[in-house]
Amino acid sequence: MSLKPLLALLVLVGMLAGCASPPPPLPDTPQRRELMERMFAKSTIMLSFKELEARAAAEPGEPKRQVSADEALAKHKQQMNVDLPAAYWQQRRANLAQLIDARAKGEAVGLAAYKEKYFEQLSQAPTPMLAALANAPRMDALPEFPLVLPNDHQLSYFYLMTVAEETFWEIEQFYQHMADLDAQYGVCALYPGCYRPDFRTAKPRLPPPD
Q1: Threshold 0.85, pTM exceeds
Q2: % of the chain at pLDDT higher than 90
Q3: How many structural domains does the chain have?
Q4: Is residue 22 situated within a structural domain?
Q5: Are 89 and 73 contacting, i.e. CB atoms less than 8 angstroms apart?
Q6: Interval 71-81 mean pLDDT
Q7: What DSSP state is assigned to residue 203?
């Protein structure tokens, strides 16, 4: 066979493989569901949450994964160290509360979507494989792991992208509202890390609320 027909055949095979449907899920049972829940608790995203929370609990200066609007405002006041009217701080707190609420909702949507896709992968694995991984201190150390979750990193990326998509508009609004607020009270003359009207091209140096 000449080279050109061979390449065409390889491309066709690749296209057919890419379009192939995933294997059907195995029957759902309480035992399998319990094993999946235990595996999900050790998933990349859930472990990262636990690590952030443990680090924040162990080190007082470490930022928390989730903070309240009052905690965020107190931190901003300390960092900015400027004298501004109470009305400014009240509005800043309201803006922070709205952002924190939007991020929490976006994170919940992302986590639900991530879990659904995670369980779709697990539902195709035989029960003995699920049991081995659920009982392992480190799932990724077992040879079964890449067989059951071949796209673990892609699933984590999917979670992050879902959260970003869910919160993009609210973050844009937050920057706009803060730029308007800082302009109204002349904050840029007092604090170089203020929010500016050109926030899309000149990122403020103020850290995020968490």
Answers
A1: no
A2: 66
A3: 1
A4: no
A5: yes
A6: 93
A7: -
